[in-house]
Structure formats: structure tokens, C-alpha cells
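Repro case for the chain-ordering regression, as requested:
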Amino acid sequence: MSTKSVFVRLSTLLMILSVLLAACAPAAPTATAEPEVITNTIVVTATPGPVEPAEPVEITYYTFSAAPDHVEQLDQMIQLFEAAHPNIKVKVETAPFDEYFTKLQTLIAGGTAPDVFELNYENFVTYADKGVLLDLSPMMKADTTLNPEVYSERANSAFSYNGMQLGLPATFSTVMLYYNKDLFDQAGVEYPTADWTWSDAVEAGKKLNDPANGVWSLYSGVQFWEFYKKAAQNNCRFFNDDKTEVLINSPECVEALQTMVDMVKTDKVVPSAADMGGQSDGDMFMAGKLAMDVTGIWMFSAYKDAPFQWDVTVEPGMANKATHFFANGVSAFAATKHAQEAYEWIKFFTSDPEMANIRIASGWELPALKDPTLFEDYLSQTPPDNRQAVIDSLEFAVVPPVIVRQSEMQDGINKLLEQVMLDQLTPQEALDQAKTLLEELIK
Amino acid sequence: MIAQRRPVQKYLWVGFFLFPSLAGLLVFLITPMLASLALTFYEWDPLIPTHFTFVGMENYLTLIKDADFWSALGHTLYFIIGYIPLVLVTGLAVALLMNQKLIGRTFFRGAFFMPVISAWVAVALMWTWIFNPKFGIVNYLLGLIGITGPAWLYDPNWAMPAIILTSVWKDTGFIMVLFLSSLQSIPQEYYEAASLDGANGWAKFRYITLPLLSPTLFFTLIISLINSFQVFDQVWIMTQGGPAGSTSVLVEQIVNNSFRYGRMGYAATLSWVLFLIVFVVTMIQTRMQKNWVTYD
Amino acid sequence: MTESRLHELNKPLGKVLLYILLIVSGAVMIVPFAWMASTSLKSGEYVLTMPPQWIPDPATLDSYRRLFELYPIGRMLLNSLFVAGLTTLGQLITCSMAAYAFARLKFRGHNMVFFLYLATLMVPFQVTITPLFILMRIFGWINTYQGLILPGVFSAFGTFLLRQAFMTIPTEYEEAAYMDGASPLTIFMQIILPLSKPALATLSVFAFMGSWNSFMWPLFIVREETLMTLPVGLATLQGRWLTEWNLVMAGAVITVLPMLLLYLVAQKYLIQGYVMSGLKG
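-- result from build under test --
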């Protein structure tokens, strides 16, 4: 075949492809299912403010939590919103969580930032500090239909910074102790209760371990997220209140870390990373190889079809109880051209009761709202039976320590913790080094 | 060859042939490169894109004192020293094999190339398993001959070897394809003539194959070196630089600084120091090629 | 006499050993894909069991069905084909022309320009991607096909590869043509290119592959689903907390198949060496 005829064939192929693409081009972005019910009890949104422009304004909403499982629910919410706000169109952009912030940063650097975007609490402070986020308080004050009390206070304050409300909370979650009832029954051990301490867990764990069948009793990772929580359970914090002092190497923290390490190395009830070899704790729990798992409520839907009975309870404590509090919020870009419209969407997406119902019904995270009636539905779903424990856990919630240089702190501490697990450092040494690192980072 | 033409005409031809490629290169590659070079003298947080702080040579000074940079450099060199000889030898060996008349040759060529065309995401997972300390094939096979295998990706001493082996597996096909196309163009007559003169397999390889392959070998070596200095994907997916930073490599540092710590100026500095190292190594290689590469 | 007898004995034994070696290496190469394909046929969300299960039981095409439901696979496939196809064509044209200039039209400073080409390979793209993005913004090419394709068309690797290939072509053919007054363009199209089919096929495969698997650039530049390519589109399968590996592997299989097809087709050209009939070297 001569070069020329290859070229001709290739070009023909490409032309065919272009025609195909052009033919498909006007296709609608997503194939959405028509929502079954469009309720008429839409939240009233006669907000005072600038005269609404005649042509619809399009705002972009960038999210990580919707794809791939909840795109439908998000579309439903958008339809509800657009019905109530005919002048606003919401365009969705998604990215996988692992790449989400890389892309967001690049979009901002390139001057093409989305109008509204999702942020998790850990990244919020970084973005807030750099002036990337729009202050929503003026619009909230001018908005007579908004009752700021609808939000859970803890979640709401998580997204305020220096007296400005730079985001509104969309969802919150916490971490529980999951346990495999069948394995407990087989080993003749009593189920965990909300009063357990970690020594109780270890004691039960020793009876639940079944190396012959590859069964481990407990999983609780030795990493940043678990560590600050365990430290809090032992009355220790990374920083003082106004983050001017680093307290991470105090004896209580060292003790907390030692307990975590002992559970793997001395008590041998928790598998090490090598023992798990690429499997996640979720994989092991579902395979019936893990009696107790410390993980978030986001796993309820994942564990739903487990081939065994399971339930949850409040996580064990040490000197006292402390549980995780995670929140995702939604913010607007500081330099957005559509501030009012962005605010409207944010308000709807975080506080509208219809939106909340859609969320709870589909198991798409918990809205950060205080209304107990919303949770009736949530609490009545099973498994697990003991969903009340989720609400109970909130009593003891601690927020993550967050600073502007968050990623460096997390990476640094994780690396030190790994070194402890590899016997390269003692807990005391690791935390002493952590103190030096953190002092450097908060300068 | 073209020297007979008038210079103006010659340069017009040069311009004609070179222009599309060079123009595109200048716009899409060199401009961003120069921008990043300029960045090395600034502190720039991409989240505050209009704000540039001039810091002069400060980034470079920080780099010299940065323990993470030096350990990343060390790990990268470790990777290169382990990976390059292995992948070139295996790739060449496989190419030589694939050049023979064998049954199922097309199938084998496809088999060897499969790792190359796949993305790391799928492949890395499988290899994490193959190296699983308890259930993985590697330790199982080692067990059969009485060796207790290490914890591979979870052991700071063995994580990099595991990554090297995985990389060799993935890239052998790539090297094979590069060598195969030039092996194909060595005329059979040369080998036949050599046989008539009584040369054995090794002599044929040494005196015919190798010299005629030398341009490709040169090319492959340079490209592999340039690429391996920038090793990233497999490290990011398989170990994230761990355990305890034992597989942290240069581009991983660059990515962390660019996209997670908001220190683009410093990330650019890391990149340009990397560039300098690679440039020097490549120059040395190019000088040396005169000694062993033959084009006719 | 004895020597040739020994030779005879070694031949079949050597061949057998060779085939064993080949089969083992081939298996080593393929086994991960067998696992990948097998995982894609598994049902249930938790497919990572220890030790790994090789034959899916029950085997189901459910993952593929769900993938097509969740994502516009057809569209993404077309986009990937279009982008990779144009990129390959662009590389073939621009790289071969530049390679010809380097290999044959020796001009003053050609070494320096060539080093400039090489230099573009030495700065990690992770650091140039942000300035490039900003440049695309300035051109107004964000979320466009040209923004997606053009940066990938200009390749120093391709130029280098073809330069080496062109340099190994003996100059006798061209010299004859020059005597007859042929222009560099004629020589390029009628002598050099036809004689470089293996190298051109090699470059096609690599260019296509690079573009096909490209992730980071499409991730940034594509802002809506109609332009999405396969790797980016399928990336959201890896959830924040939970990954359905059977879906991920089904996506990986779909992504790998066209590349495999291309490679098998290109094999024909890769195998074909250039024929030197009638001319002794």
C-alpha cells in the first residue's frame, strides 16, 4: 500500500468520524430520567435584590460527590431549582475526588473558575484564607426567607472564616464502629456498646481473631484522621485554641499514639498495611474477614448487601469519647459574575427541604440541617438498626485541626506515623518531629 | 547532498520542512516551559493567580537545603539504575526473539505489547496483588524454593524494587517495538554472508546486529533515560511515595508542590533542576555516541 | 562431522526451551489482563477477595451494561478516536517533515535546534500544564477540540524517532534522484517516506497510544460531557470512599480494545522491512 493511499484512507476515516461527531454534537449533556414527581410545594424564593435579567443566567456548579452514583438525584434537584428560578440555569461539572482539587486549582489559575463549587472542610480553610471564596453574609442578611438556624451550628461555623460566611454546609458525616454480628455470635463475644473503651475493644478483639480463617478483629487506621480523633479521646489536641501553639507531642497524645500502635503490634488485633496487602477495610469487612470496622456512615449503602448481620455503635473512647465530624460545603467563587444567582443555588442546595428529602431517600449523604423530622426517614431505614448511634455520636464530635497549609501537615504527619509503624521512630520521637513540622507550618 | 543548491533555496526548504513542527513546539511547549522557568524566581500560588512575589534565587537556595529533594533525587537515581539496564536488555532480547520465524509470532508480539497500551490504573492494582506479602504469586513462588519473601510494597527496602520490576514488565513491549522495526530492516544477506564465512550466533550479533542497531539503541537509551528521570504514575498509584517516603521521586515532589501545597514557584524550580540534570546526562550521552553509533 | 551432529541435537532442544521461555514470558505479560477481564465479568461490588478468584462465578456482563447506562460510552469512544486520530495524523506529518530537515537538510545550527527539541522532553509536563492552560485561556480554546488536540500534535519524541530512522536509509537512492533534478519534497515523499514504513507505523502506534491514554490534559481542558474522552469520563468510577472494581475493569477493557486492534493492524507495517532488492549495501 503506498503512502498516498494510506493517507487517503486515514483522512477518509477521520472525515467520517468528524461527521459522526458533528451529528451527535447537539445532543443533550446528560440523559436524565424525568423525575417522577414534581412537587408543587416549592420553597418560596421571592428574594429582594437586583432586578432579574430577562435572559437566563447560567452558573456552573462543580462537584465531586455526585458522580457516578447520584447524578440523577443532582439532576432532580436542579430541575426543582430551575422551576422555581426560571432565570437561572445550573450547569454541572464533575471530577473524581482524587483529581478534583487539582482541576479546581488549575481552573482558578486560568481565570475560568466555576461559579459554585463543593469543598470539603479540610480544604476550606486554604481556599478561605486566600480570598478565593465569596462572602455570602450580605446576601444572607438581605434574604428575608432564609433562616440561618436551619443549619447545624457546628457545620455552619465550619464554613465561616474571620467573621465571613464563605460557604454553606451541604452534608455532614461521622465515623462509627461497625461490627459483624455473626462473627461475634460465633466467638461468643457480647456486642459492643456505646460505653466501650479501646481496652474493651482489644479484649473482645483477642477472642475474635481467627488467623486460621484469615479473620481479623478490628480495623482502625494509623493515619492523620484517626490520630487526631484518638488524641482527642485522650484529651489531647494538636494546637491550642488560636493555633499559636503546637501541643502534638504532649504525653496524652503520645499515649494515644502508643495505644494505636499497640493494637497492631502488641495486641495484634488490627492488621498492618502489609497484612491487608492492597485490600481496603471495606473489602475485608464485606468478605467477612473483619469483625469490627471503624469507618464512616458513607459506607451504609456499600455494606447494605453484606451476606451477614451487622450493626453500628458509637466509637469506643479512651479517657473520654470523641468522634469525627466531617462536613462538605458549597461555596461561590469570589470573582463570580453571578453572585446573586450563585447564592440562590447554594441556599437551595443546602437548605431546601425537598432537596433534603431527595438526599435522604437515595442515601446520598446527610444534609447538615437541624430539623429532626428530616431524619425520621433516615433513622427508620435499615441496615443498620442502630442508626440512632449516628445522632448520638454527634454529641462527642470534634472538628479536624485545619490550617492553611493543610496538605503539607497531613502528608508530614502521615509519613511520621508510617515511620512509627515501620519501627523507624518511637511515638515520642515522631511526635517531637511533628511538633517541629507544625510549628514551621503555622508561621 | 543538497550542498550543491544555492544557500537561499536550501534554507527555504529547511524552513518549509521545519516550520510546522517548530512553530507548534514554540507555541505549545516552549512558551509554557519558559513561563515555568520565569516562575522559578517567584512565589506563585495558583489560587491567587494575579499575585506574584519576586524572590530571586530563594527557591533555588531552599531546594539545596531541602532534604526531601535530595532523598527524592536519590530514589529516582535508584529507580533509573535498576530499571534502565533491565528494560533495555529484556526489550532487546524479546525483540531478537520476535524477529525469528516462530509459531504464533504475531500472538506473542501482541502479548508483549499489551502491558504498554494499558493505563497504569488497572495494571497497578494487579501488581499490588502479585506482590502481596501473603497471597501474592511472587512470594508464593519464592516460598516454593524456601525463601520467605519480603513485604514488597509495604517494606521501605523492597518497595522500589517492586516498582522497578513492574515498570520493566510494562515497558518491555515498548522497547521491543522500537528495536523490532530496525531489526526488520537489517538485510538477511548480511547474515547469510556471515554464515558462509563461518560466523556463529554470537559473532553475528556482535558484528552485524549490534552496530546496525546502534542508532536505535542510542535513541532508546536517551528516551528511556529522559522518561525514567520523570517516573511518576506507577509510584503515585502503587505506593504514593511510601512507605514512609521510601519511593518518593522527583516528579512526585513536583506534583505535591504544584497541586497540593500551592507552591508553584518551588515546583518549577524542582522541575528546572531536574531539567538541568537530564540535560547534562543527555549531552554526555550524545558526545559518547560518536564512539559507538554507526549510521551506515 | 561430530560437530554438525551436535548441532542437529541442539536445534530441537534449543527450540523447545525457547518456546517454553516464550510461553512463560507471554503468560507473564498477559495474566494481568486475563485477571482484568475476569474481574470485569464478576458480579457484586466487592470483587477483591484474597486470594484472588480467577474464574468469575457467576460470570455476567452486568458491569458493561451498567457502564453504558452510567456514561455516554459511545460518545466518549468517538471523541477519543477523533482526538487520537487527528493527533496521530498531525504527528506523522509534522514530525516526519522536521525529521527530514534534521536528517538530510543539514543546516547551520541544526544540532542546537535539535537539542531544543530534546529539551522539550526534559521538563515534566506536570509543571508546564498550568502555564499551557492559561495560554489556552488566552487563545479562547478552553473546552474546544483544538485546545484538546493541538498541544499533543507537536512531539519531539516523534521527530527524534523518525530522524534516527531516516538517518539509517542509505543515501544512494537520493543521490540518484538529485542527479535527475528532483526537489527535496519529491525525494521526501517518494523515497524517504515509503522506505520508512516501520518507523512511521511505530510512531503512529505510540502517538495514538499517548493521546488515547492521555488523562491530565483532557481533565483540565474539557468542561462538558460532549467533549469528554474515555480516560477522563471513566475516572469518576473511582469513588472517594468506594470503588466498584468490576466497573473499573470493564472500563479498562473497553479502553484497551481499540488500542489493541490498532496495534494488530499496525503490525503488518511493522513487520515489513524495507526491501533492498538489487542494491548491495
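Ordering looks correct now. Residues 57-292 of chain B form a domain with the MetI-like fold fold (CATH 1.10.3720.10).
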